[in-house]
Sequence to fold (498 residues):
Amino acid sequence: MTFPVSGLIRVDGESGDPLSRQIYRQMRSAILDGRIPAGVRLPSSRQLSATLGLSRTTVTAALDQLTLEGFVDARVGAGTFVAETAQALPTIPAEKVGRDDNPGPRAARLSRQGVALSTFMRRESGTGPAFSPGVPDVRLFPNDLWGRLLRAGARRPDRGQSGYDAYDGLPALKQAIVDHLAETRGVKADPGRVLVLSSAQAALDLTARMLLDEGDESAVENPVYTGALISLRGVGAKVTPVPVDGEGIVVDVLAGANPRLIYVTPSHQYPLGMTMSLERRLALLEAASQAGAYVIEDDYDSEFHYRGRPIPALAGLDGGGRVIYLGTFSKTMMPAIRTAFLILPDELVEPFRKAQRNTGKVPAFAVQSALATFLSEGHLRAHMRRVGAIYRGRRDLLVAAIECHCPQLTAEPVPDGGMQLAVRFRDPAVDDVAIARRLIARGIDCGALSAFHIGEERRSGLVLGFAMPDDEEIVAGVQVIAEEIAATPSMAKVPAVS
Fold:
């Protein structure tokens, strides 16, 4: 005796979903939840097509898919039966759905690294252009030119772009990167030391995983870029916060420490903006050499320098092979490029290349090809000259607007470059986290300065990006900040989170 399957099937010819697919899905669901019991005989394709009023071809396609996936067994001369193993998957009975005793989804069973990576939340984002830190004005980017370069890169792939070769970066892009850095940052490197990755965060993650075991010591500037902190804590490393002053990281604090990895942003400290002095750079290289540590130099927005010539990169001073140079095109071009790179000491090149192959943190080859042309033909330098002048004007306007409308804030010192301005509350007891959340709710994207600190010593303030908003948006945004400050009584300082 056959099971009356047709009563469980409802097809809709107007849904746009193939009828055979509708039959397959409904029968599969009924088998899994027990409405069609294991072991019962199903109607033949001829019988089922007649009952449903559909072609036999449509019904046969659904039954064939169920047979292929093991939900039913077709026995020659006997018929088609629901497989005994088809209901082995644990399911919530239909009658329990929506009831209070429905246990719901299981809690995720994560590794210690998984817990660390998923519980450390980064800054929330607002909906408007003012004042997202570290985000360029994509309206200024030459999108038509970039589109042509992308199409050209996609149309002319070589054999390396068509397969799995050059997973560490296209040779043309690696050469263009070292040429660009030699001219702009004083870094001389062989293209073979370049590793191209899908983002700066991917580069930080890979570096932490390659160089640190759980419990190993690392050191970071304090305050610190939270993306770096997440990568270090994600591998279970111990993180030592090192204070900064007007010359950058206070290297003397590292005396007696034994970090395996030190993270710094020497061109424009993130988020405060000061430039590390030459004396501090040399002292840091000496300290790293003494400790046998590697230094990650995150040179994320070094191209934006508004007073004098930028100080050469730390990697350009490194004679001992201690510096891992990290660069990205998310700031100079746009975040959607999703391309960053590392320049590695010689002994790290081969292990990092193999790890890159095994982790797949590789940008699309068409993007790499377009980027190589964008660099080699001088388009990036031209773009930087144009937007650099605009960003400088926006920085100056933001400082003036803060001084005019927000006397409770101080913007000293004003950074010589970069894309964001850290402003401090004159009253250190102000809850900057609460104010930042209210600003985000009003469409003003900013960071709470205290959230970038590790330990008890925290500065209360806001981190305001000035690259993306235009002049009108800057003035309007500062007026919103002034309104929120005026409506905020003094509040207790947020408890420190270490």
About this structure: The first helix runs from residue 19 to 32. Residues 136 and 331 are 6 Å apart (CA to CA).
